[in-house]
Every structure is written in C-alpha cells, then in structure tokens.
Design a protein that fits this description.
Layout (H helix, E strand, L loop, with lengths): L22 H4 L18 E4 L4 E2 L4 E2 L7 E4 L17 E2 L5 E2 L4 H12 L2
Antiparallel strand pairs: 1-4, 2-3, 5-6
C-alpha cells in the first residue's frame, strides 16, 4: 500500500514555492531576528538547477556548481513556517515539545529514505 510519503525524497525542492532545498533543511528553523548566529538554520540562499541527488540531506545538490540562485528574501520566496519539530512548540494542551536534535533529524531522514 502506498502512502503520500512514498518517494518524498524525490520531490525536492520543498514547500509550495521550492524554498527549501532538502528534507534536512526543512527540519531546521528559519533564522529569525534574535536567534543566535551560530545555530543551524534553513538556508536563505541556495543554488537551483542541479539534478544530482544528495543522499545525506535528501534533496537535490544545492552548492558547488554554477546555477541560478534562489533567494528567500525575494517576495514570494519565503521559507518561514512549517517549523513543527524545528522550534520549541507548545501544544494546545500545554505540553511543550523541544526541537529535534541533529541526531533525531538524521534518524528521521533515514526512516523517510526507507519509504
């Protein structure tokens, strides 16, 4: 039986506007003002046009070659939101969920690759 997650790795870039290059980056928060600079965040800019699969981050390669630059600062290109698991989240019942750790993000990607 197939699921909507079947082959999700093959549909990069992600979000409705293609503003996140890999599933790994989708599991990261967008850097907001006030966030520490040394954290791990979704990229603000990345290269698009590659068809080379990135098996670690699960998406298309987005660096190390000359292609068109995707800039999330351009109107309509934002990659904010959809940050469940990427930021501390308070559920309606008051339960607080901490963001996923790097190890948990990588484990989740391994699971998604198995679908």
């Amino acid at each position: 039986m197939s699921s909507v997650l079947d082959t999700c790795w093959a549909t990069a870039p992600y979000l409705h506007n293609g503003s996140v290059p890999t599933l790994y980056d989708l599991l990261l928060p967008k850097r907001l003002s006030g966030d520490p600079k040394n954290g791990e965040y979704r990229p603000d800019q990345f290269l698009v046009g590659s068809r080379e699969f990135d098996p670690v981050k699960v998406g298309l390669r987005s660096e190390g070659y000359e292609q068109r630059k995707f800039d999330t600062a351009v109107k309509g290109n934002s990659n904010t939101g959809h940050d469940y698991g990427a930021r501390r989240t308070t559920l309606p019942n008051g339960t607080v969920l901490e963001p996923l750790t790097k190890e948990q993000r990588l484990d989740l990607l391994e699971y998604l690759k198995s679908l």
